């Protein structure tokens, strides 16, 4: 802390210090150090601190106080350059510079530079490439990059991370597509769409040839015929085709053609946002039909017939357990996972109080009409036909 005497002395000597030459500054510092018993370094800091109050800094933007060399080219020259730049179609400075004189001549011939003096026009001709780059960089321009046709679509569909947070009620569905290319992405091949209700584990699968709009629309419509409870929220990945199909359907529903629903998408390259359907891709698709390449309409029909039977078997007769809790140690590592009692998707829906009695009655009538043994036999027959098609064409099993 500086005392009252030291403060007054500091203020007095600071004025003398900043007006003095180098030799006198040293003498003032020595005298100040003798009187206050502080080091020269500390004394110099005190003088500099006082100078900020005595001589406030003048901003460089004020007229006559700008730091650095004065600007050689004014706003008038910039306007002439802009005329040339727009005439060229907005090319870069490196391409504009060697043609600058020609462009100015063309503008003068067309009498478009009459508003500028001859001196300013002549000065503009002498602009260097570096200066021209700085000037052009300040011009507003529209982006030359063409966005994908789905850019507007992505802006209208929000991203929702960790969709599993909605697993406490039915109607929240994750969607993903599995490609059956056999490791060769050329040409058309079959694609399977998987729809999974994260509350009950209800799965609906459908196949189509190709991933174009018409094929995905058919897959989406077919999958919905195998889901019997109302759907409230769809959550696919960022594939633009299924997003477009669902978005158009959502807009129609908002106009009153059907019950409305919410549409969101996962974060790009974040599989945990669609963890439920990603898990089903392996368990309910790959383990069932393998990694073969399917690329014919006959195989599409067989796959859809297979999925129809397999959906009934998995949803009404195959139980699964839901994760309830993760137990961690003191370091945050998971040491135990606690699951609930395994139940079939059908059982979970029948126990849900939010499902209407009509829907539960429909599910009950379907369940009463099914025979698990018959379903398994029909599934095995279809799989045998698919396998025969693969071996008949001498196709190799390629892991994707």
Q: What gyration radius follows from the Cα positions, in whole Å?
A: 38 Å
Strand order across the largest sheet: 3-2-1-4-5
Structural class: alpha/beta
Main beta sheet strand tally, sense and closure: 5 strands, mixed
Q: What does the average pLDDT come to?
A: 84
* Total beta strand runs: 7
User: What proportion of the residues form beta strands (DSSP E)?
Assistant: 5-15%
Gross morphology: elongated
Describe this structure in words.
- By secondary structure, this protein is α/β, with parallel strands linked by helices.
- Helix content is 50%, strand content 10%.
- The chain contains 16 helices and 7 strands.
- It has helices at residues 4-19, 22-36, 40-54, 75-88, 93-96, 100-109, 118-124, 129-137, 151-156, 213-224, 240-254, 275-289, 297-317, 345-351, 357-368, 372-392, and strands spanning 172-180, 190-197, 203-209, 233-235, 262-263, 323-328, 334-339.
- It has a 5-stranded mixed beta sheet with strand order 3-2-1-4-5, with helices on both faces. Strands 6-7 form a two-stranded antiparallel sheet.
- β2 (190-197) and β3 form a beta hairpin.
- α1 (4-19) packs across α3, α4 crosses α6 and α10 packs across α11.
- The radius of gyration is 38 Å and the shape is elongated.
Helices and strands in order:
Elements: H1 4-19, H2 22-36, H3 40-54, H4 75-88, H5 93-96, H6 100-109, H7 118-124, H8 129-137, H9 151-156, E1 172-180, E2 190-197, E3 203-209, H10 213-224, E4 233-235, H11 240-254, E5 262-263, H12 275-289, H13 297-317, E6 323-328, E7 334-339, H14 345-351, H15 357-368, H16 372-392
Parallel strand pairs: 1-4, 4-5
Antiparallel strand pairs: 1-2, 2-3, 6-7
Helix pairs in contact: 1-2, 1-3, 4-6, 4-7, 10-11, 13-16
């Amino acid at each position: 802390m500086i005392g009252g005497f030291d403060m007054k002395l500091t203020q007095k000597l600071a004025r003398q210090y900043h007006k003095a030459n180098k030799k006198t500054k040293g003498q003032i510092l020595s005298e100040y150090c003798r009187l206050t018993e502080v080091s020269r370094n500390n004394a110099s800091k005190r003088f500099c601190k006082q100078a900020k109050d005595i001589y406030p800094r003048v901003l460089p933007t004020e007229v006559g106080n700008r730091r650095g060399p004065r600007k050689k080219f004014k706003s008038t020259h910039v306007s002439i350059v802009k005329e040339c730049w727009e005439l060229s179609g907005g090319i870069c400075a490196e391409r504009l510079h060697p043609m600058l004189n020609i462009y100015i001549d063309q503008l003068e011939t067309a009498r478009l530079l009459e508003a500028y003096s001859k001196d300013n026009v002549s000065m503009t001709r002498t602009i260097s490439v570096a200066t021209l780059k700085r000037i052009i960089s300040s011009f507003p321009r529209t982006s030359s990059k063409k966005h994908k046709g789905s850019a507007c679509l992505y802006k209208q569909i929000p991203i929702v991370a960790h969709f599993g947070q909605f697993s406490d009620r039915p109607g929240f569905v994750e969607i993903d597509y599995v490609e059956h290319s056999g490791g060769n992405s050329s040409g058309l091949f079959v694609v399977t769409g998987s729809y999974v209700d994260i509350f009950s584990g209800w799965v609906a699968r459908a196949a189509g040839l190709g991933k174009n709009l018409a094929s995905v629309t058919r897959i989406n419509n077919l999958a919905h015929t195998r889901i019997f409870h109302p759907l409230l929220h769809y959550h696919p990945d960022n594939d633009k085709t299924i997003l477009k199909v669902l978005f158009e359907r959502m807009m129609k529903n908002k106009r009153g053609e059907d019950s409305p629903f919410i549409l969101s998408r996962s974060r790009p390259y974040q599989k945990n946002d669609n963890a439920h359907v990603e898990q089903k891709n392996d368990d309910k698709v790959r383990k069932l039909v393998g990694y073969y390449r399917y690329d014919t309409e006959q195989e599409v029909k067989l796959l859809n017939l297979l999925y129809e039977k397999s959906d009934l078997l998995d949803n009404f007769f195959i139980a699964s357990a839901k994760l309830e809790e993760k137990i961690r140690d003191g370091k945050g590592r998971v040491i135990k996972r606690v699951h609930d009692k395994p139940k079939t998707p059908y059982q979970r829906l029948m126990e849900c109080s939010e499902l209407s009695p009509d829907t539960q009655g429909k599910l009950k009538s379907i369940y009463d009409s099914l025979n698990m043994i018959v379903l398994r036999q029909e599934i095995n027959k279809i799989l045998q036909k698919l396998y025969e098609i693969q071996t008949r064409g001498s196709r190799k099993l390629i892991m994707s």
